[in-house]
Amino acid sequence: MNQRVKRILVACGTAIATSTLVAVQIQEEMAKRGLTVETRQCKATEVPSYAQDVDLIVSTTPVPQNLGKPVIQTLAFLTGVGKEEVLSQIEKILKEL
Amino acid sequence: MLGLKEEHILLIDSAHDAMEVINLLSQTLEEGGYVKQSFRQAVWEREQSMPTGLELSGEIHAAIPHADVEHVNSPALAVAILKEPIPFKCMVEPEKDIPVRLVFLLAMNEPKKQIEMLQEVATILQDSTLVQKIASVSSRKEVVELLTKDQSPSLGVTTST
Fold first, then answer.
1. At the N or C end, where does chain A have fewer CB atoms within 10 A?
2. Taking 80 as the threshold, does the pLDDT of residue A45 lie above it?
3. Is residue B125 situated within a structural domain?
């Protein structure tokens, strides 16, 4: 498997707090799955300018889909609804890189 | 629970819309000096462009309005329990209305340090039994009691800041 550290861009409305909450949970959950990830946080409007440098984009607000990178839009890290599915999806995407 | 005071809890029988709920909650924080006068307008403007409605796992849904840090003097949380649901737009699908019964207004001035506040709110939101209990309280005191019992399971999130 490719051992390069995977980079995830985590976006929310204002990059105030929601993206931190999401980023921390992704790091911890991926670590449990044996994946080391690096997260970078930004506002949803900044996603296009950072998309080039990352492997995956996770956002709690709508972001453009045509960025050439996989995008997951989810509230699971806030509401808990569908969290396991989203974590499995992230794991699968990262392992297939 | 972090910073939640009885005077920052509102039990609302009927409200016209999300703006009224945000105004009433902002008022409680403004009176305590936690936020500047500009806060309520900033929260409402943000809510319109980047809504915060969250569809939860049970029957009761929530919203977590907030604003940029410059409108906040010191961190605080205000909570509204709505007897009748009020529509808030969904955070991830802004064209969708969510019937909201619980509103958590977050006032943060150093979000990286105050991530615990959002974390605690998220922990509550993920506990549908607790959410149901909060939505059916008849006094402010009951809310404080429910939220200070620390009966909700932790998300297991540790902060690195």
1. N
2. yes
3. yes
Contact state of B115 with A17 under an 8 Å Cβ cutoff: yes
What pLDDT does B157 receive? 47
Within a domain: B157: no
What is the reported pLDDT for B156?
45
* Residue B65 lies in domain: 6-147
Element spanning B124, H or E: helix B115-125
Higher-pLDDT residue of A3, B146: B146
Residue B83's pLDDT is what? 97
Examine residue B152 and state whether it is found in any structural domain, yes or no: no
Q: Does A65 touch chain B (CB under 8 A)?
A: no
Into how many domains does chain B fold?
Answer: 1
Closest CA of chain B from A96, distance in Å: 26
pLDDT at B160 over 50: no
What the block records as the tokens of B100 is 């909201």
Question: Does residue A12 have an active-site annotation?
Answer: yes
Backbone angles phi, psi at B15, to 5 degrees: -135, 155
Is B66 inside any structural domain? yes
Interface test with A, best of B120, B126, B152, B158 (most A CBs within 10 A): B126
